[in-house]
Design goal:
By secondary structure, this protein is of the alpha+beta class. Helices cover 28% and strands 29% of the residues. It contains 15 helices and 36 strands. The radius of gyration is 27 Å and the shape is globular. The termini are far apart.
Length: 661
């Protein structure tokens, strides 16, 4: 039997989709066809390779990102299976930072869905190579040309179909390749590529007609730049069209450039998991107890077993921290598994030995990491969690468990609150249900969740400055001089700390105490709400030799900062959701009236062949109430979707202040 070709490059490919489009089934089929697994699992029966958690098996949805590997010729493809439900968009967020390209899965029956639009808009903005896989061609109601028209209109205009379908919508549906050697196929592809490629435009207009090789090269370049999108039809269940998709990924997605300095991102963390002795091509999750296993994508350099590494972390309050540890186990994802070492640029490995590791930690400069970019809105809901069992010990166990979950999903921002409760942030109610189930199954803790409230934030409305100095005579209070100025910055900037004092004027420990306290104080906020999009500048400082301590600066800084914020003034902002709503024409008047009562802004209304499509935004505090009445208003035929978007100023009297963030 001939040996397999030597792997010469690795691609990290995200598999993304709206929930139920067939994303996990496609991942399963890819692994089966490549010989990585010897039988196909099913989402319905809960035995797929990537949905390994008990909760995922029970609910039939992907909750955590999973990694599996296969080879295609000389290319290793690491498949990164992400959640499809919008409540787990944070998992998708982290996956985007480690991808070389993506396969966006659509259903040939349901077509372009709400989450599909969100994902494609983000992928196009990032200019990631994106191949489209139109799944379920063997289902009744499947479409091809009409669906392509919908995709061009709603997702991306420059599509190049590389397969076609015969007997569409039947059990006998077959996907057949479209070769660029065919003059008609070549001319069609050239015309699409000419819209973004000046050289191809010149050939199409002035001639001579481009060759198959030239069109193929232009398609590869357009795909790599995220300007053109190859399309493959198929069925994950039958395997039709999947081979063509794999060949397309290997041929059209380029690997990321490397470098000498080790630089990488931790994009997933398992508790007690993963083992490092196996050679399987899959990388499922483990719910067992014990040490942590981190998934590290390396962009440049190399990492070896027993190497000491320093990870950088941006804390929720904005402060930058470092964590150092020694790698005690290292398993590179792939067919060779533990036999492959060191971890080299472009590859992913499971690593152990870093007890405090958290999702989002960076190896190398933080500002250079691709996953530092925020692509989706932050969680817009907050809840308080109480241990059902009374007593301080139960509350402590609950808080510890939620902190552990926050290491796997930092955006939930678990924080202890007065009275023994723990505050967590959420994207939606399904996420709350998953957290509750995880607490029971993994930690043996039953918990009660208060009704979710919107997360309110503050932004300074002007510039304010305050100073507290050490008195020359009769001084009382902290032995420290601190002067701070607070001023607004652009939206999305977060909190920025700066100096207008001479950096050597204070001992380093005192500088650190002021900066860390500024971040912490603004994160919690003087009025229980985070203060964001502002710059805090140290304008005055001083100390007295043997008397001053770092604790003096930690005690005084919140007081000065609070005074500066009071003088600057502030405005409260509440989260909004962008929504899309499809509804029957006869229900339009009743629905729009209800939306108006819910303080919604309808930005677009489209009269379609089967009804109306409405798009707009409404306050997050109104979403749940509207969702409850929608079925009655539309006789059960309304199709609703929403997701967090940019916040807006809180309307006078609209809502009481939230729990903070």
């Amino acid at each position: 039997m001939p040996s397999s070709p030597r792997v010469s490059r690795t691609l990290n490919i995200g598999v993304l989709a709206h929930v139920d489009a067939g994303k996990t089934s496609l991942t399963e089929r890819l692994l089966y066809d490549a010989g990585v697994i010897d039988r196909l699992g099913s989402v319905d029966t809960g035995d797929t390779q990537t949905d390994t958690g008990e909760i995922e098996r029970q609910r039939g949805i992907t909750v955590r990102t999973a990694v599996a590997s296969l080879t295609a010729g000389d290319t290793q493809i690491n498949l990164i299976d992400t959640p499809g439900h919008s409540d787990f968009i944070a998992e998708v967020e982290r996956a985007l930072g480690v991808l070389d390209g993506a396969v966006l899965v659509l259903s040939a029956v349901e077509g372009v869905q709400a989450q599909t639009r969100v994902l494609m808009k983000t992928l196009r903005r990032l200019r990631l190579p994106v191949l489209l896989f139109i799944n379920k061609i063997d289902r009744a109601g499947a479409r091809d040309e009409g669906l392509l028209a919908d995709i061009r209109r709603a997702l991306a205009p420059h599509l190049v179909p590389l397969t076609t379908v015969r007997e569409l919508g039947t059990r006998n549906a077959r996907a057949h390749p479209r070769s660029l050697d065919d003059p008609g196929v070549r001319a069609e592809a050239a015309e699409v590529l000419a819209e973004t490629d000046d050289a191809m435009l010149a050939r199409v207009v002035d001639g001579p007609p481009p060759s198959a090789e030239e069109v193929g090269a232009a398609l590869a370049a357009g795909t790599a730049a995220g300007l053109a999108h190859p399309v493959f039809f198929g069925s994950a269940l039958s395997g039709e069209g999947v081979g063509a998709l794999v060949e397309g990924v290997a041929r059209l997605v380029p690997p990321a450039p490397g470098g000498a300095e080790p630089r990488g991102t931790v994009f997933a963390v398992e508790r007690g998991g993963g083992g490092t002795g196996g050679t399987s091509g899959t990388g499922g999750r483990s719910g067992g107890r014990g040490g942590r296993t981190a998934y590290l994508r390396l962009f440049s350099g190399e990492v070896t077993l027993r190497q000491r590494v320093t990870l950088h972390r941006r804390e929720p309050d904005g402060a930058l921290t470092e964590h150092t540890g020694q790698i005690t186990a290292l398993e590179v994802i792939g067919d060779a598994g533990a036999a492959r070492e060191p971890l080299t640029a472009g590859n992913i490995a499971r690593i152990k030995g870093l007890p405090g590791v958290r999702v989002g930690d960076r190896l190398g400069p933080v500002h250079d990491a691709p996953s530092d970019r925020r692509h989706f809105a932050a969680p817009s809901l907050q809840t308080l969690v109480h241990a059902r069992e009374p007593g301080a010990a139960a509350a402590s166990r609950l808080h510890t468990a939620l902190l552990d979950l926050a290491d796997q999903d930092p955006l939930i921002h678990a924080r202890a609150m007065p009275g023994g409760a723990t505050s967590v942030l959420l994207y939606g109610e399904v996420q709350k249900e998953i957290i509750a189930a995880t607490l029971v199954q993994d930690y043996g803790i039953e918990a009660d969740f208060e009704p979710s409230r919107p997360v309110l934030v503050e932004r300074p409305s002007g510039i304010g400055e305050a100073v507290r100095e050490i008195a020359r005579v009769g001084h009382t209070g902290p032995w420290a001089t601190v002067g701070l100025r607070v001023e607004p910055t652009e939206r999305g900037a977060g909190v920025v700390f700066g100096y207008e004092t001479e950096l050597g004027a204070l001992p380093r420990a005192f500088h650190n105490a002021i900066e860390e306290t500024v971040y912490e104080t603004l994160f919690h906020g003087p009025r229980g709400r985070s203060v964001t999009d502002c710059r805090a500048v140290l304008v005055r400082s001083g100390f007295i030799g043997p008397l001053s301590t770092a604790a003096d600066f930690r005690d005084l800084t919140p007081v000065v900062l609070g005074e500066a914020l009071e003088r600057a003034g502030w405005r409260i902002y509440e989260p909004y959701h962008a929504f899309e709503l499809e509804l029957p024409a006869e229900t339009l008047a009743a629905v729009t009236a209800q939306l108006a009562a819910a303080e919604a802004d309808i930005g677009e209304s489209v009269d379609g062949a089967t009804g109306w499509l409405l798009r707009g935004e409404l306050p997050a505090r109104r979403v749940h109430g509207f969702e409850r009445v929608l079925p009655r208003l539309t006789h059960g035929e309304g199709v609703w979707w929403s997701r967090p978007c940019a916040d807006r100023p809180l309307r006078a009297g609209a809502a009481a202040p939230g729990l903070g963030s």
